[in-house]
Amino acid sequence: MRGLARPMMARLAIGGLLLGAAACASTTETFPGRTATEQLLMARAADKAVEGLSLPLPTASSIFVDDVYFQGEGTRYAISAIRAALSDAGYRLAPNKEAADAVFEIRVGAMSLEQMRRVVGLPEMRIPINETLNVVSLPELSVYSNRDRVGVAEFSGFLYEARTGAPLGAVMPMIGSYRIRSHKAFMVVAWGQQQAQPGLRDPGSSWTEF
């Protein structure tokens, strides 16, 4: 028995070493709250909302953008888009209220995503199967479906004189949206825009002169 036990122990030891060598490394991926497509939908909506932004002030006026009440997911990009639109319109950006001719206090009405799905057939359903409300999920059975994903942005604000606080005017809500639509037939064949695309850049140049 002892002669048989030694080869068995040796095999077990070799097997343990092989398992250890096979499982000595692993990788970890992080999963942010928004997918890249969702982030791009919100960013493109913000860009569209501020297109053509102008203020009831002479160009070259010095503006301080007060963003203290401009809070929420994705708003840092939107604030930068507002600042870029003002700069593009010819206004100077002041580093603080003391150095500004006027303060532009901005606020966010909406900056989020909407989704709508249309189905010709039976949509995915959850059906209760007993009195304790246990449910069973039934998959979609459709001949055609489409899905709209929309990034929506709405900003507004008002102006007042930096030194006296006197009102100078208000900016009506700036609204922008960016939509992608995808289609599917028989739950297999897909076509149409599947994801938002990053912004394009002119070949050979990474900047645009105002």
Strand/helix succession: HHEHEEEEEEE
Secondary structural class: alpha/beta
Largest sheet: 6 strands, mixed
Mean pLDDT: 84
| Largest sheet: spatial strand order | 2-1-3-6-7-8
Uncertain regions spanning at least 5 consecutive residues = none
Helical segment tally? 3
Q: End-to-end span in angstroms? A: 89 Å
Assign a percent range to the helix content: 10-25%
- Shape summary: elongated
β-sheet strand percentage: 35-45%
Number of strands: 8
What Rg, in angstroms, do the CA atoms define? Answer: 29 Å
Short description:
This protein is an alpha/beta fold and about 210 residues long. The chain is built from 3 helices and 8 strands; from the N terminus they run ααβαβββββββ.
Give your account of this protein's structure:
The protein has helices at residues 2-22, 36-49, 75-88, and strands spanning 62-66, 92-93, 102-122, 125-128, 135-138, 141-161, 167-185, 189-192. The strands form 2 sheets. It has a 6-stranded mixed β-sheet. It has a two-stranded antiparallel ribbon with strand order 4-5. The chain has 210 residues and is α/β, with parallel strands linked by helices. It is elongated and about 85 Å long. β4 (125-128) and β5 form a beta hairpin. The chain is 23% helix and 38% strand.
Topology:
Blueprint: H1 2-22, H2 36-49, E1 62-66, H3 75-88, E2 92-93, E3 102-122, E4 125-128, E5 135-138, E6 141-161, E7 167-185, E8 189-192
Parallel strand pairs: 1-2, 1-3
Antiparallel strand pairs: 3-6, 4-5, 6-7, 7-8
